[in-house]
Design a protein that fits this description.
The complex is a heterotrimer of chains A (about 325), B (about 375) and C (about 290). By secondary structure, chain B is of the alpha/beta class. Chain B contains 14 helices and 14 strands. In chain B, helix 2 packs across helix 13 and helix 6 packs across helix 7. By secondary structure, chain C is an all-alpha fold. In chain C, helix 1 runs parallel beside helix 5, helix 2 crosses helix 8 and helix 3 packs across helix 8. Classes of the chains: A mainly alpha (about 325), B alpha/beta (about 375), C mainly alpha (about 290).
Chain lengths: ~325, ~375, ~290
């Protein structure tokens, strides 16, 4: 079950302030990195919400992110729709996509669930890749951005856009945390812990799982919608399945079932990629090796480890038993 | 002498020098895939670019900053922003995939930094989406395939079946060929686009093509798909009855040895083959072979010419973004692939297209040029320079 | 080309693709069915089979040396992976397995780039299997006939081994009830290790068999993963019959989709997949529990 502990608050705040400071003090590339971290963290929060609290390990979140980017990108680029309306459409569309996948796969478990979601994501990828109207593999240019000039924010400025993405990350965290603290969130954790018992209590497991997938999909879609605004260009690359894998890596590195972990994990993974990438073109290999070692060493993840150490020291009552 | 003082002095000297002298340092951002599926192409282009600088003896005049696009458009955008805004390069060189080119196009145009495209062939980049800051020295998809239509018709071929992977470049290459072959009087008796990047089993498509009874088959495939296609074409026994034609990437020197004897007799068109019998090309091939012990590919030449046009532009006095951008379209010289110039109406390269046959030379395979179509220039295609 | 000849050739094309898919997916599915281990790096082992095959064929100038050498080479690499990583991950949940093998893909692909370079490589078709053979008046590439025959042989061999040999009986017993099997004196650990080796050898075999038709590229590791997963999910993960049924369905749908509905052929398989998941989530022929 989810508790907004003070350790979580401190960790998320620390990463947020770190990102803001880096964006403000660093150069242009620092802002690109901040945006990359914030968007990846949003995607990973969406996945952790579903996998860590609902037990649904989805490998189609990369595709949902891409669908969000495409709905936003295609409506603004092709029909010149207002970006706010397009963003709403992107979030609603990805929620629907998530709901459908969740409803179809509700009684599929374990590895079958992982593979089924992978297949759905791949289906979306193929449809986008082969669609002439959406530009096929060439993608679409001319994607718009939000117009915040009314409140004095110029999103064409890279710093202000980076700050918007950090705000998006924070909002995604708060939405996920709020839902998890609601009765719906408690029920979701209950389904994760014992599906049969919840069913016996008269709950519709399928509806709850589909709804959780919809909420998670909406958060992932919002991240994709911001990504489309960031590059102002969309291509099928946004839906590629390895992105789903990367999101899962972030969740694991940071700590699954913690919600704060994905934020820490995203910062860690992106930093590592750029750090190692500065030395060698073969950085994928090192990331792969780090991933193997991290998974084998323990399942707590970085945030989980911090939380574990601190809570053991202070003996405060936190979420003992959740990681079992 | 303090460093600051040194820079001041150099700056002062640069101001007093005549404009024709090569300026102190030109900062180049080399934006190529170093990982992902096109890494091999990135390596070739990089090697060619460096060769051009070394040949001119100007390697120390250029500072090269390399960034990896990973063949991912979002990464390409982030990297070009870094090169332009943070590293403040004078010119960006590279870009293999048309997807990445499409993604960075608006940024390049908006930030007014010259981009020398070293591969990506999307017709629109020097057509409806052209920019005075984007100069392409490689090729356009249409440019390579357009001459094949009339030429094949002249060879007595009347009915052609076409095949290509189902993605933008595949469609552009086939569309151009279809138009030029039909205009010459030929007939396309069938056409199919195969799913891209799957199991690469062309059996069903080859059987379909055979049953359409064409005089010839025209295809575009590249990389791993090219190897698979050429081998499967041969294994189905089609080569004996229906000759295979295509765009020259099909039998590129990079892959032709993996295709083996199956490639012998395939006739294709390309903007460069390493066996061109010109003094410029012989020097180039010699230099490359001394370094890498294999013949260069069209990708190496694209990298080389990207470097060469930049050097020519700088030699003509260009030193900053604006002057490099306006000097690039005026560049004109004869290089390894023959006479080369930039068409100022589109900023696409004007070059010879070579129709060549892959022939066996002992154990190895080599390219025999059978026709040269000179100075192939793309139509303006809706390009408005401003 | 007459109508009958056309359809007969397309039938053989479908069968050939099915057999290739079967060779690719059977290793993945038996490792899962018997060991409950999900190996996303199966595609990477397939790629290694192709590359090791290329090297052996180049050194020895003999395809058959590669044909036998590549599965052995891949098995040796598989053993190293097993002792280093996989053995410890066996008891973990599917997510950890997915992640570790996801990491292995990255590592293996980059190592292949370092050893063999990024340029696609090929193996010539063995001399004896060049050209076409003629059956019932239809000429068909000899090498493709060889793939069909090999696929059928592996199918028959594995079925017989599982159903008729004492090794098969021990395997079935260990899967049914591991504790009971070890109480009966069966070394379950050793048995499952041997299953893993067989799975690796089959991946290597698929790689070296596919190499003369396709080419060896670093992209193989991930390109093949999705089609393979589709085969095992449709057929039923973990069952040999499932792999057979799944590959035949996918192979024929892809082939006849390409003939009859070319613009839908790549979506067709996914529609089938979604349908299977809705109606029979554990696949058409699931492994017995």
């Amino acid at each position: 079950m989810f508790y907004q502990t003070s350790i979580k608050t401190v960790c998320v705040a620390a990463v947020t302030f770190g990102l803001i400071a880096y964006a403000m003090l660093g150069g242009y590339f620092a802002r690109e990195i901040v945006i990359e971290i914030a968007l990846l963290a949003m995607l990973a929060i969406a996945l952790d919400f579903l996998a860590g609290y609902g037990g649904m390990i989805s490998l189609c979140h990369g595709a949902i992110y891409g669908v969000g980017a495409y709905i936003f990108g295609a409506t603004t680029a092709l029909s010149g729709t207002d970006p706010w309306l397009a963003a709403l459409a992107a979030i609603a569309g990805t929620a629907l996509f998530g709901w459908i996948v969740g409803a179809i796969t509700a009684n599929v478990g374990g590895i079958f669930f992982i593979m089924a979601t992978l297949a759905f994501g791949q289906m979306a990828y193929v449809i986008v890749f082969e669609s002439r109207a959406l530009g096929g593999d060439d993608g679409l240019a001319g994607v718009g951005r939000f117009d915040l000039s009314a409140v004095g924010v110029n999103l064409n400025d890279s710093l202000q856009f980076a700050l918007l993405c950090v705000a998006g990350m924070l909002l995604a965290y708060m939405v996920a945390a709020t839902v998890l603290r609601s009765s719906f969130g408690r029920t979701l954790s209950g389904i994760h812990a014992n599906e049969d018992r919840m069913q016996a209590l008269g709950l519709s497991v399928r509806t709850h799982k589909a709804n959780a997938f919809a909420i998670s999909g909406a958060i992932a879609g919002a991240a994709g919608m911001l990504a489309a605004q960031h590059t102002q260009y969309i291509s099928p690359e946004y839906l590629v399945w390895t992105l789903s894998g990367e999101a899962l890596v972030v969740v694991i590195l940071g700590g699954i079932g913690t919600l704060a972990g994905p934020v820490v994990g995203a910062a860690l993974l992106v930093t590592l990629e750029h750090f190692i990438g500065g030395y060698t073109d073969r950085w994928h290999m090192f990331i792969g090796a780090i991933l193997i070692v991290a998974v084998m060493a323990g399942r707590r993840g970085l945030f989980g480890e911090i939380e574990h150490r601190l809570s053991r020291r202070s003996e405060t009552k936190t979420e003992a038993g959740i990681h079992a | 002498m303090t460093n600051a003082f040194k820079y001041l002095l150099v700056g002062a000297l640069a101001l007093t020098l005549p404009a024709s002298a090569v300026s102190a340092q030109t900062k180049v951002g080399l934006l190529l895939p170093k990982s992902g599926n096109y890494a091999a192409l990135g390596e070739e282009i990089d090697a060619g670019f460096v060769m051009a600088l070394e040949e001119a003896g100007l390697a120390d005049q250029f500072t090269i900053i390399r960034e990896d696009t990973e063949v991912k458009p979002p990464v390409g955008v982030a990297k070009i922003r870094k090169l332009v805004l943070q590293d403040e390069v004078d010119v960006v060189v590279g870009i293999v995939s048309s997807g990445v080119l499409g993604a960075v196009r608006d940024f390049v145009d908006g930030s007014k930094v010259p981009l020398i495209v070293a591969n990506a062939g999307n017709d629109h980049a020097t057509g409806s989406a052209c920019s005075k800051y984007i100069v392409r020295v490689s090729f356009s998809n249409g440019q390579i395939n357009r001459p094949m239509g009339p030429w094949m018709f002249e060879q007595g071929i009347r009915k052609v079946y076409t095949l290509a992977p189902d993605y933008a470049a595949g469609r552009q290459m086939i569309d151009t060929f279809t138009k030029s072959f039909s205009a010459a009087g030929g007939e396309i008796v069938g056409s199919e686009f195969t799913p891209f990047g799957k199991t690469q089993d062309f059996g069903p498509y080859l059987t379909n093509a055979k049953s359409a009874n064409p005089d010839a088959i025209f295809v575009f495939y590249a990389g791993g798909e090219a190897i698979s296609f050429v081998k499967q074409y041969d294994s189905f026994g089609l080569k004996a009855d229906i000759p295979l034609f295509g765009s020259g990437f099909l039998t590129s020197p990079l892959y032709v040895n993996a295709e083996g004897p199956a490639a012998v007799g395939v006739k294709t068109a390309l903007h460069y083959v390493p066996t061109l019998d010109t003094p410029e090309n012989k020097t180039f091939v010699g230099a490359y072979q001394a370094k890498f012990d294999r013949p260069p590919s069209e990708y190496t030449v694209q990298g080389y010419d990207s470097g060469r046009v930049l050097i020519e532009a700088v030699k003509s006095g260009a030193s900053d973004r604006e002057s490099i951008a306006s000097a690039l379209p005026k560049v004109k010289y004869t290089g390894p692939r023959g006479p080369l110039e930039i068409n100022p109406a589109t900023n696409n390269v004007v070059q010879n297209i070579y129709i060549y046959e892959t022939v066996a030379d002992g154990d190895a395979l080599t390219q025999k040029v059978i026709a040269t179509v000179e100075n192939v220039k793309d139509p303006v295609n809706g390009c408005v320079m401003q | 080309m007459s109508g009958t000849e056309f359809w007969a050739t397309q039938f053989l094309n479908g069968l050939q693709l099915s057999m290739l898919l079967f060779l690719l997916s059977v290793g993945l599915t038996i490792i899962f069915g018997l060991m409950h281990f999900v190996n996303l790096a199966h595609g990477a082992l397939y790629m290694l089979g192709a590359y090791i095959g290329v090297s052996i064929a180049m050194w020895t100038d003999n395809y058959w040396a590669a044909f036998f050498g590549a599965p052995i080479g891949v098995t040796i690499i598989g053993i190293a992976l097993y002792t280093g990583v996989i053995k410890r991950m066996r008891k973990e949940g599917p997510m950890s397995q997915v992640l570790v093998t996801f990491g292995l893909i990255f590592v293996i692909v980059d190592l292949v780039r370092i050893v063999w370079g990024s340029i696609a490589l090929g193996i010539p078709t063995p001399e004896i299997l060049q050209g076409q053979v003629s059956i019932f008046g239809i000429s068909y590439p000899a090498y493709r006939m060889f793939i069909i025959a090999l696929g059928l042989a592996v199918m028959a061999g594995l079925s017989l081994m599982l159903a008729r040999t004492s090794y098969g009986a021990m395997l079935r017993a260990s899967v049914e009830n591991g504790e009971m099997a070890s109480a009966m004196g069966i070394d379950v650990e050793k048995l499952l290790f041997s299953v893993f080796c067989v799975g690796c050898a089959l991946a290597g075999l698929a790689g070296v068999v596919a190499a003369p038709v396709f080419s060896a590229t670093p992209a193989m590791a991930t390109d093949i993963l999705i089609p393979t997963l589709i085969v095992v999910v449709i057929g039923g993960l973990g069952s040999l019959t499932g792999a057979i049924v799944g590959s035949l369905i996918v192979g024929f749908i892809q082939t006849f989709g390409a003939v009859l509905l070319p613009s839908f052929s790549s979506i067709l398989v996914y529609i089938l997949l979604a349908g299977t998941l809705i109606i029979r989530p554990e696949g058409l022929v699931p492994a017995r529990k």
